[in-house]
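Methods — Computational structure assignment.
A single polypeptide chain was analysed. Its primary sequence is given first, followed by the predicted tertiary structure written as structure tokens.
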Amino acid sequence: MMLFYTAFVVTALATATAVNPASSSRKLSISNEYEPHSKINSKEVIRDGPPYYGTIFVEPEIINSDDPTSYIGKTYTGTGMRQMYDRRKGWIYVLAYLFEVTYEKGVKVEFSVHKEFGNENNAAQPVDKYAPDVGKIPMVMLEKISQVWLMKGNNPWGGGRNSDGSGHILIHTGQGDQYASGGIVEETLMHEAAHASLDGMLYGDAWYAAAEKDNNYISTYAEDYPNREDIAETILMYFAVEYTKKRLSNVDRGKTVNAIPNRIKYLNSLNLDMYPFKKARTTQAPTKADTTPEPTESPGEDKCDGLEKKPCRKVKEGGVKVCIYSAKRKINGKCKSKAKFADPCEYTTNIKCNDGSDACKWKNNTCKHVCEDLNQSRCKNRRIDGKKACRLSKVANPCYGCNLKSECKN
């Protein structure tokens, strides 16, 4: 199968997963570096085999800022010495600011923030930033993670396991800003969460049997390190085609389901808990071919799914057209304040709310921002001190592509 595609030329470390040599009683591991997007050059190549270099770069909308999170809240618990991996130095034993972060289904994760942040308030900022994103990691992985390490530095993230079987995720906040600019924070977190949880669970006879039947890999990164990166590389694209498939182009969906059909089938057979996400309408596992066709769809209510614009508009049932097509990836979402007029409006009384800030108003016994709940026209025209204060957010279009008219009306 000859595939023409844009490959990412990346230098990945070829050494084994780093294991902490300092303690034989509690061995810790960390995954190898996944090179940041800024170091990758795009180059047209011809290669027989995997359709991608690295899956975190395929589509930044696989998981996005508007997706649900299982995050509930955080509690500062003080400081303590913690063993962590710092890509700038290696294994360290350092004073950390500690936060207990709570998620749904009774999951609690300790966020350990490096002392270099200086004080509790500064340390709380990266926790507030990343804790909700960690809550988008499917529960099958999140429930096995006990620690998130936060530190400065423009260094790749990581994931690994503790001797007790729980996992940890490493976040360098400088690199996080780069991931955010490329829209791949959530995608990278899922990759590293797989190292922290699924590696020890899935690598085995059944996985290798499915891989052998596929006779292919989802990425060259997985192919180069099949015993280390195959699961972490595969899980994101499995999630994309089974849970948020409308955010992939038909070409990417076709590449994925034809490259790893047996791995997809195997993962489906496990009935993994992917909460807070729900499975998309099902598709049949396609057979592999010498080209990259569109994924094969099941009949019935899924007849519109995966069709391009022209064939989409021709589908009929009882002589009536039943499909509708939208090319918009993003649509207008809720009304939000512009950064200049942001205010949490955490006032507890009517007087404090109305007098405390021009950006807040008391409504239904709650203090709310003036931009909240405004319709589109009022959102665009709402002013504070004579200046427009609100904006419409952009969210993923749930009706992107071809869909049933009964589900997506004009």
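Note: Residues 1-16, 21-26, 36-47, 283-301 have pLDDT under 50 and may be disordered.
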